[in-house]
Amino acid sequence: MTIMSERVEETAVDEREPALSVRNLWKIFGPRADKIIGTPDADLPRAELKRKTGCVAGVKDVSFDVAPGEVFVVMGLSGSGKSTLVRCLTRLIEPTAGTIRMDGVDVTTASEAELRDLRRKQVSMVFQHFGLLPHRQVIDNVAYGLEIRGVGKKERRAKAAEIVSLVGLDGFEHSYPDQLSGGMQQRVGLARALAGDPDILLFDEPFSALDPLIRRDMQNEVIRLHRELGKTMVFITHDLQEALKLGDRILIMRDGEIVQIGAPDEVVGAPADDYVRDFVSEVPRSHVLTLKWVMRAPRPDDSMDGPVMSCDTIVRQAAKAALASEHPVRVVDSQERVIGIVDDDAILRVVVAEEDHA
Amino acid sequence: MSTLAPPRPGAARPDKSPPVEVKRWVPSSRWAWALGVVVLWVVIWALTKGNDTLALAGRERTGVHDALAEFRDSVIASRADNPLIQLTYEIGSWFTSVVDWLQRMVSVENFPRPVPEIGWLGVTAVAVWIGLAVAGWRIALLVAASFLSFGIFGYWSDAVDLLIVTFVAVAIAVLVGMPLAVLMGTGNRAVNAVMTTILDVFQTIPTFVFLAPIALFFGIGASGAVVATLLYALPPIIRVAGHGIRTVSATTIEATDSAGQTRWQRLTKVQLPMARKTIVVGLNQTTLAALSMATIAAFVDGPGLGQPVLDFLKTVNVGGAFVPGALIVVIAVMLDRTTTAASEYGERAARGGVDRKRRRIMLAVAGVPVLVCLYLSRTYSWAAEFGDSTWGPRLADAVNEFFGWFTDTFRDLTQGFKDAISTVLLNPLESLLAESPWWLAAGALLLLAFVLGGFRAAVPTLVCVAGLLYFGLWNHAMITLTMTLVGTVLVMALALVFGVWMARSPKVDLALRPLLDAGQTIPPFVYLIPVLALFGPTRFTAIVAGVVYAAPVAIKLVADGVKAVSPTTLEATRSTGSTTWQEVTKVQLPMARGSLVLAANQGLLYVLAMAVIGGLVGAGGLGYDVVLGFARSEEWGFGAAAGLSIVLLGIMVDRIARGAAQKTSR
Amino acid sequence: MRSPRRRLTALTSVAAGMTLTLTACGGGSIAEETEANEERAAEFGDCGDINMAINPWVGYEASAYVVGHVAEETLGCKVTYKDLKEDVAWQGFGTGDVDVVIEDWGHPDLEKKFFAEQGDGSAMDGGPNGNVGVIGWYVPPWLAEEHPEVLDWENLNDFAEEFATSETGDKGQFLGADPSYVQFDEAIISNLGLDFEVVFSGSEAASITAFQQAEKNKEFLIGYFYEPQWLFAELPLAKVALPPFEEGCQDDPAEVDCDYPETVLKKILSTSWVEEGGPGVELVQNFEWTNEDQNQVAKYISEDGMSPEDAAALWVEENPDKVEAWLPQ
Ligand SMILES: Nc1ncnc2c1ncn2[C@@H]1O[C@H](COP(=O)(O)OP(=O)(O)O)[C@@H](O)[C@H]1O
Ligand SMILES: [Mg+2]
């Protein structure tokens, strides 16, 4: 919790306006759900609330900001409220309370027409089970968003063709979804989301239904697209590996509540509680942690002849040079000031701990 | 009175995921309770039998009956200046002129021409060409064979008339039904519940009840026929298409919603196209339902094959009625296969499986002989009027001979069978239901509903029981219920035997399917006489008629259910070395339980739908009351009350069965 | 894959071939017949339309088609036959759907609604059609022959057990009829102290089948039936004597203990149609024939399997003087 508030403050001072800003968002399923917020009942654990009122708290008092161009990952076990959260962002599910701002537009109070406009131009979403139209060819699935905006057939098909080739589906324009593999179908889903050239992309566990190898391909695809297009992304997953691989920052949810928000190394290096610790225990820490997390304060007797490395260097990348050098590594911050020392022991502790796990 | 309720999607669904272990049928406490209720009922019945049965003597009527009749009379009296009737009459005469115009084009002489504008050769050629265009050459052949059979068997104009009435009624059913289907597919649960109940009423109310009022409001002949057909054909498309729209993948809806579509775009670009297959099924059901009204429509002088069927009934000529009846089956099969194939063909064409250019050229070339045929059929008598042929009468004679032989040979057997079932099953059950005091039977039914289906079954049962008492035909309702239950038992016996057999042997399936289709679409009036000859004018005859009508549906449902049992489970059982009998009784049937329940439910409703037919063959009960109401103006209120009682019975047993099925599947 | 071109050529040549052969063989020309029709229509002048209800029994059909045949062929009227049950037919008088019901067995309730005295006046009594309905209790011929005693009601109880069926337990079964007929059998049975129970056949077809099977299999059967009816040509049912009908003995339905009276069958006509007048109206009003006449035509239809049109035409041809008497002067 403390980490979270710290983070929010931090982004708040960022001079650029956030691409997405969520404040005190609630979603409670069930009859007369709006009456519950503000009462002591709202603080009850999920199971008890259900027993008492018959309502299910999908999302409980969630606040966060996403910076433009950031990849923001929401992670949690199944049932923790991720899908509910991401659907509330465009009001596919009507939130019970709270505010959502997107590029300056207040989503929660938007009229139906405004909301439609927002969905058409600003945000697109990719779904776990693709949600393609089986009666349309790939190209027309991709062009769907343009079609409902009223873009002419020729123009939208041209645009769609471009996007189809961007996601690597050249030659499949005229196939039907059921003629494609799962991975290819999700590429269509991705293309459909990109076709409208939105500012924000939402992904709800897009690769969970895919085979591991294909999933890796698709993750790389997303990374590539992000590099090329620089879109803001909110990415839902229950897979920590995926979260760490893609996320600039990660929000961890449990039972509808935020447990922790932080960069991947923060989550691994300083888990907020046992829930998160448990989550990250199997992660190869050397792949995630940066030197910042293993350094210690320099002592007078430390040799200052070792190599200089940035505090953001990932341990694994630093390991070879560090171990080769006789002197400990000097860790510097962005202003080139030495802020710590990493010796062989520190490196080995991280790497060996992993071996033990395995 | 073929009330052909289509299987209701979602009424009770077979378990989807095959359980890994084979479930043993453990009688839950529920069934023990139910048994307890029955035992208690029997005990009290033994003590109170014959009291308070609410049986009406002779042609006694209650105030409710008279009120209904008075209402009808006041409508008739006001018909000259009742704006509603003027409006409906206007609509009716519009139907008549459309049908009349079509008839003069293709089926009856357009005076002063001695023949229609387009004769048989031209009509057949156009129909074949359409078949070719929408569904390919196989269907074109089927269409050709069907149309030729109309002429060869001597019923060209009646068959084409039936096609016209069916076409008009189905077209209107689609126009009216699709918006309602959309409402049902997108509306909330309350909308759904209300609409389902209304549709249930429409599908169970005996047509004879509203035939006379329809004639009053819309007129006699084509208009009355179209409206009667329409009312009956409307529910399937609403129900099935609504179901299709409702079950469109939620993810796809969500995904396309997230792209910012309007509601209208969602409907036209996502829901309707994705539900297309189901909508076609609904259209098919609607067409078949429309055809099953053919004979009923003939009671108000509706044009079509129903007229010759009823004509031959006057002289109890089975063979004579069989020929037009069989042609109704031909039409049903033709339309069914054509719409299905057209839907598949359309999809294939859309997916580029058909060479469009080649197809266009082929159709254009095929158009040349069509034009020639049109010209000929307008110019020469032989191409306009089908010459006399002896095929029809010869087939009729053969059928008569066969039934004569069949009756003579098996009558002793069938009479014995009838007597046995009557003594063992029918009489005791009827005694229990109809000779119990009303409060006992009503209480027992309520308790059973509650025990089997909880409040969800008990509340509708309470409403229905109250309604039955209100309409004052309690005793007859219990007699009809008895016959319906016995009929259902027989239907299920047949369904189990033939359903399992079909599921296990594709050959049997292939051989039986067309017969089942025929059993479902041939007008009951055709087989009433032979059944009467075999069993006499008795309750059992009515039951047999109901069984003939209901068994095909139940058999198909059981066959499909058993077929759907996971092959893996079956393989696993086989690997343990079980016998065929064990395989069937311990794996296939228990796992197809959902389908069995659905089959029993549908079987029951179908048997009940034949109650009125039963009234025509000596079964008494509510069916006879409805026939009486239709036959004697002064008894109309009585008949209407009986018709409504049949509706209540149908809804009651349906809700109990559904409640029980829902509880069981949990 | 076959070449599309080949198929096209084949189709074209078939088409061409068909045109040739079919045009060559000619046959009757429709244009000629059309002309003939037009001439005939001009010749007759305006006889008007007759909408003739066809109630569902053969005797009715016989009368209707004989009248219709004469109206069409001799007077040049346009006759439309409409298959309707009695109730619906009567409703049609007011709307112009129906002009004539040619054989009515008595419908006091409908008369109340549609005759001028109490109702809307859309229908009127068209006078007797000459046929007389004989309603009563009948048994199959074999039974009458082997047990002539059953022909007297007083002996019926001796046979009650023989008449019993699965529907009546140990009581004798009395087969009631199509509900279109007014029946007092339940009252008669109880008032005469007979050990019988009524089972309604529900339809004429069911009653006929029952009598046919009873005769064929030498089974006991007694039931409500009536003459004239085509079945008598094939199966001369024997009438059971009940206490004879006396005026008033059927006034209270619960107290009936006598036989049915003979029914004079009558014509019911649309008032507005009669007011319009014309040769068609006169013909229908003049029409009258005997039970034997009707039975003859009914036999043509039921036993000889002729269409009602052909049966009527044959009878008209055979009985020119009877027909002559109906024609408008
Ligand atoms: N429409 C709904 N009605 C009631 N409860 C719901 C509904 N949708 C989701 N829930 C509940 O909300 C919780 C969060 O669900 P979800 O957002 O789907 O979780 P996740 O996506 O993290 O697996 C779950 O307990 C789920 O049962
Ligand atoms: Mg989810």
TrEMBL record, chain A:
SMART domains linked: AAA
Gene Ontology CC terms: membrane
CDD domains: ABC_Pro_Gly_Betaine (cd03294)
SUPFAM superfamilies assigned: P-loop containing nucleoside triphosphate hydrolases
Keyword Transport appears in the UniProt entry: yes
Residue ranges of every copy of the ABC transporter domain listed in the record: 44-280
Gene Ontology terms: biological process: glycine betaine transport; response to osmotic stress
Keyword Metal-binding: no
UniProt keyword annotations, A-Z: ATP-binding, CBS domain, Nucleotide-binding, Transport
MF-aspect GO terms: ATP binding; ATP hydrolysis activity
Recorded superkingdom: Bacteria
InterPro entries per UniProt: AAA+_ATPase, ABC_osmolyte_uptake_ATP-bind, ABC_transporter-like_ATP-bd, ABC_transporter-like_CS, Gly-betaine_transp_ATP-bd, P-loop_NTPase
Pfam families from the UniProt entry: ABC_tran
Protein family (similarity comment): Belongs to the ABC transporter superfamily.
Protein name per the record: Betaine/proline/choline family ABC transporter ATP-binding protein
The organism of origin for this protein: Nocardioides antri
UniProtKB/TrEMBL annotation, chain B:
Protein's cellular compartments: Cell membrane; Membrane
One of the Pfam families matching this protein, by short name: BPD_transp_1
Gene Ontology CC terms: ATP-binding cassette (ABC) transporter complex
Coiled coil: none
GO MF term list: amine transmembrane transporter activity; carnitine transmembrane transporter activity
Membrane-spanning ranges: 31-48, 118-134, 139-156, 162-183, 190-208, 214-234, 279-300, 312-335, 361-383, 438-471, 483-504, 524-551, 603-624, 636-657
Keyword annotations of the record: Cell membrane, Membrane, Transmembrane, Transmembrane helix, Transport
Domain ABC transmembrane type-1 residue range list: 159-339, 477-657
One GO process term, biological-process aspect: glycine betaine transport
Bilayer topology: Multi-pass membrane protein
Broad class of the protein's primary localization: membrane
Family recorded in the similarity comment: Belongs to the binding-protein-dependent transport system permease family.
Protein name: ABC transporter permease subunit
TrEMBL record, chain C:
Database matches in InterPro entries: ABC_Gly_betaine_transp_sub-bd
Organism superkingdom: Bacteria
UniProt cross-references to SUPFAM superfamilies, sorted A to Z: Periplasmic binding protein-like II
Signal peptide boundaries: 1-26
Xref: PROSITE patterns: PROKAR_LIPOPROTEIN
A molecular-function term among this protein's GO annotations: transmembrane transporter activity
Keywords of this entry: Signal
Gene Ontology CC terms, in alphabetical order: ATP-binding cassette (ABC) transporter complex
The keyword Signal is annotated on this UniProt entry: yes
Record-linked Gene3D superfamilies: Glycine betaine-binding periplasmic protein, domain 2, Periplasmic binding protein-like II
Domain ABC-type glycine betaine transport system substrate-binding: 49-318
Protein name, UniProt field: Glycine/betaine ABC transporter substrate-binding protein
Pfam families reported in the protein's UniProt record: OpuAC
